[in-house]
Fold:
Amino acid sequence: MARKLSIAAAAVALAAVVTLGLLSAKESDGGAGAGESPGPTPTQARERLKGAPAPLAALHAQSSQLLGGGKNAFATRLRALRGYPVVVNKWGSWCGPCRAEFPALQRQSVAHGRRVGFLGVDGQDNDDNARAFLKKFPVAYPSYVDGDLSIAKSFGAVQGFPSTVYYDRRGKIAYIKQGSYPSEAALARDIRRYAR
Structure:
């Protein structure tokens, strides 16, 4: 019996090593975003988002900017967006799964950006690295710098990178997705479901 358990444990360990190896290979190739079309250029995004209501247009005017002010500035922005659903993505330029799902966020924020607010929260990152990343993968919304994770604590998503938080029109949390989306279709489905 002990020998069978030992063999079973070895098989599980081998499967875990193979799985981790495959995930690492996928991540180094760009993960879920690899092979997908890149997000819209800033010019294309501006064109598609023309005519957005003023609170959402204010987000678009700060596309790919890193904003300071911490938890208070973030809370003030959420209050300014009341009346609109808001999708908040916590990310870091150092985070492989965050990088992998960014092209989907680029596209979905433009597809829904005339009725849904999008915000980023850049956690535990180096500002220069984050700016370089946003230059390579521009999004149609700003991100708040969150070096100490105080913003992430305010919405209960400290542990997972990335995390995506959905706020309803009243500014209440409707859903928290810990971890990366496996596909853009899954992200789009949650936006339709929770950002109403």
In short: The domain at 39-194 is CATH 3.40.30.10 (Glutaredoxin).
